[in-house]
Amino acid sequence: MRYLYNCYYLFYVHYLKGGLPKKLNTPKNEKKQAFLIVLYNLSIEESQSYKSVIENRDTNSLIIIYDNSTKRMVDDVPRNDFIYYHDARNKGLSTAYNYAVAICRDNNISLLTIFDQDTVVPKNFFEELRHAGPTDDISCIVPIVKLKNGNQVSPFSIERNLFVPSVKTISTTGAINSGVTLNLDAFSDNSTLFLSDFPLDFLDYDFFKRLSDSGRTIQELKIELIQNLSVSSYKSMTGKRFRNFVQSESRFVFKYYPQYVRRYRFKLILRLMKCVLQGIQFSKLHFIYTTLRRSRK
């Protein structure tokens, strides 16, 4: 099924959407770099990550802009080192990421760095990334990502984020998608890297959980990026986004940690109490309670 899914992507971008750009001069013995930036209702000129990439990238690297906005955010599209694709359906991040992976594979590009539109990327990130030079046993490179208040959000322990800490709990390293560099040489050509089970929320959890389960290795980059996470505050999240987040979290737990469902329920109870104290909207409190009840079935 994954092989057929990947073939569909190549057919989709080649024939249904006007095709890929001309083949890049990318010798197989040299790792070439591409940068993916996913836009949503933000002009490219306002994107912090785009500004950083344009100013600091190598001249032979490729920029891929995947635009999920309701209207096109880019008009003038260079052809040599810049690919722009607009999809107003906004089918999620997994679609955007797989699109970029297909382009890289078709052009013998080994390294793909993913950015959200509002990630603040320091200049030395690009220099350190050049020096990192991952070997084929390294699946991806992850930087340190912090919020504007200084709190670190990536890398993180998947189990610690989901469950009340326990001495017996295993620890699986995860990272948010923005800032991650994929070493595509470490994956088979017909593998689908990002599954449609988690199109937006918990896509990063799912990716790194599967990496860990398959025994793959990640490399940490000691460079700090600044990220504005829409899920960092339950109170400021829209009701729809909050429901999607909690549903994705619950689905992830039941898929990968059925043995920890009771501990997950306890975490939901603590979250519900915390949200009550913080004065979170009643509709969100009710949804947590509903999720808690469903988890007992």
From TrEMBL:
Residue span, Glycosyltransferase 2-like domain: 49-147
Organism superkingdom: Bacteria
UniProt keyword Heme present: no
Listed GO MF terms: transferase activity
SUPFAM superfamilies tied to this protein: Nucleotide-diphospho-sugar transferases
InterPro entries reported in the protein's UniProt record: Glyco_trans_2-like, Nucleotide-diphossugar_trans
One Pfam family per UniProt: Glycos_transf_2
Keyword entries, A-Z: Transferase
Protein name per its UniProtKB record: Glycosyltransferase
